[in-house]
Amino acid sequence: MAKKAKKSGDSSIVVNKKARHDYHLEETFEAGIELSGWEVKSLRQGKIQLVDSYVLLKDGEAWLIGAQITPLISASTHVIADPRRDRKLLLHRRELAKLFVETQQTGKTCVCTKLYWKKHLIKAQICLAKGKKEFDKRATTKEREWNIEKQRVLGRG
């Protein structure tokens, strides 16, 4: 019996680039996400936006708020599809406790930075983050542009 070849490359569905621009990302966690059937089908098509989403911690649970999953046209007629519904994140008790402590005591924010496939499951990468000031954002942009220019010069030389 032949083994299946592993896919090379990234298995990410969507990456929240705005979170990297707006926050200093410190610690990452992997969380499962509770989805309905039509949402999984839409994710296979890549119809999701994480731009304005965040993670809300309440009542001992974590919720993904503001992520928009656009329903497919071929979705069933008897299912009422709400693209912006709150989705529950599945984390271990210790991870939830750590997130609660960090967000309540130190004033950090919890944001979803990425959704990706792990075997046949959809996982969310969430990060504890600290907000950037405007001058931090400008410094990051300036450093990125300098690195691009440096690569151009080294490539030609």
From TrEMBL:
Protein localization: Cytoplasm
Keyword Cytoplasm assigned: yes
The record's listing under InterPro entries reads:
SmpB, SsrA-bd_prot, SsrA-bd_prot_CS
* One matching Pfam family: SmpB
Q: List the SUPFAM superfamilies hit by this protein, alphabetically.
A: Small protein B (SmpB)
Which top-level group of life is the source organism from? Answer: Bacteria
MF GO annotations: RNA binding
Q: Which GO terms describe its biological process?
A: trans-translation; trans-translation-dependent protein tagging
A GO cellular component term found in this entry reads: cytosol
Could you tell me the keywords of this UniProt record?
Cytoplasm, RNA-binding
User: Predominant location of this chain?
Assistant: cytoplasm
Asked if the record carries the keyword ATP-binding, the reply is: no
Described by its record, this protein's role is as follows:
Required for rescue of stalled ribosomes mediated by trans-translation. Binds to transfer-messenger RNA (tmRNA), required for stable association of tmRNA with ribosomes. tmRNA and SmpB together mimic tRNA shape, replacing the anticodon stem-loop with SmpB. tmRNA is encoded by the ssrA gene; the 2 termini fold to resemble tRNA(Ala) and it encodes a 'tag peptide', a short internal open reading frame. During trans-translation Ala-aminoacylated tmRNA acts like a tRNA, entering the A-site of stalled ribosomes, displacing the stalled mRNA.
- HAMAP family named in the record: SmpB
Q: Per the similarity annotation, which family is this? A: Belongs to the SmpB family.
Please give the name of this protein: SsrA-binding protein
Species lineage: Bacteria, Pseudomonadati, Pseudomonadota, Gammaproteobacteria, Oceanospirillales
